[in-house]
Design a protein that fits this description.
Length: 160
């Protein structure tokens, strides 16, 4: 009896499907990853013009902190009162790293809320002694070895 490659592959696929627990294929996180990717693309498109710091300032972002090691300069638009006031395409803060010659490079966006909140499927970090708000950093414009949503970035220095 001769078995074709196509028949063998089809039979193997049937065995894998039969042995896979019900619901496992639908619950692999694929939809969540697609949704996250769409949200990140939305934020990137909404903030691309803010590589020009003057444009960010013209749109209402104002310097809120001097350079903070591991994050950079924070430019605040406004702090959200709560979850209902947050919008993925409208970050509350823009984060810039210093460059030689006094220039600044957009490296991240940040969301800030007076109450606990979530965006991108992530809970905001709680307030601390330095920041009185719930916050979430998103390192969209500079790779962070500790993760996209980690609060600090070891690649951002206040040294010029």
């Amino acid at each position: 009896m001769r078995i074709s490659v196509r028949t063998s592959i089809t039979a193997a696929a049937a065995v894998v499907l039969a042995l896979t627990p019900a619901g496992a294929l639908a619950d692999d996180g694929w939809e969540e990853r697609k949704a996250l990717k769409r949200e990140l693309i939305t934020v990137k498109a909404a903030t691309a013009n803010y590589h020009d710091l003057e444009r960010a300032e013209a749109d209402g972002y104002a310097l809120a902190t001097e350079c903070v090691p591991g994050t950079g300069y924070h430019y605040l638009h406004e702090v959200a009162a709560g979850q209902e006031d947050l919008a993925v395409a409208e970050p509350n803060l823009l984060v810039y790293a210093p460059l030689p010659g006094g220039f600044r490079q957009l490296v991240a966006v940040e969301y800030a809320s007076e109450t606990p909140a979530t965006l991108f499927g992530r809970e905001f970090d709680p307030p601390n002694e330095n920041v009185p708000y719930y916050t979430l950093h998103v390192w969209l414009w500079k790779w962070n070895p500790d993760g996209l949503f980690y609060p600090t970035n070891s690649r951002v220095s206040c040294e010029r």
